[in-house]
Please model this.
Amino acid sequence: MKQFKALRIHESDKAKEARLETITLDQLNPDLVEDAVTIRVAYSCINYKDALAVTGRGKIMRGFPKVAGIDLSGTVEASASAAFKPGTRVLVTGCNVGEALDGGLAEVAHVPASAVIPLPAGLTLREAMALGTAGFTAALGVRRMLENHLNPEMGPMAVTGPTGGVVLFGSHVPFGSRLHSERSRFCRSLLYPIYTAVPGCGNHVS
Model:
């Protein structure tokens, strides 16, 4: 059976330890049988939950050992679901991946079809993870703002936690707003490589 590398979290005496290991497919979510999709991972992100899981500072994972990573993008290698054919480019975010299920910080992922979505048109695998779970969450927040009929005519809006990934995307990307805070220079230094990687975002850097 083909081997690949994965960042797995182990628990011993209630302490967490992250190890870069060489494993095989049968070690990924072994209880997953029906509608399983095997993905050759191209990209993943380091999210806040991942940092908590890897350092052991948060009770993120349920069961050990477990591959970290709550999102990924890649290409389907095999599928028990008719919805995904080999060669399909896909992404995964949330859905207990990297928590109850082995996650995306590996060269191969094996996840339920319900957690997989086709890569949206216009995005590359790299761009999907440049936006990542933070960008997706921010988009949901902005959508809710629009549903609540918020608009610029209502005046400026204060946002706390400006150095977090969700706020960076949610407050800056959709509206091209300026970041006014003592950490704005730091924020822009983080955002610049992301904006230059995603078409149409570069014009928002100021």
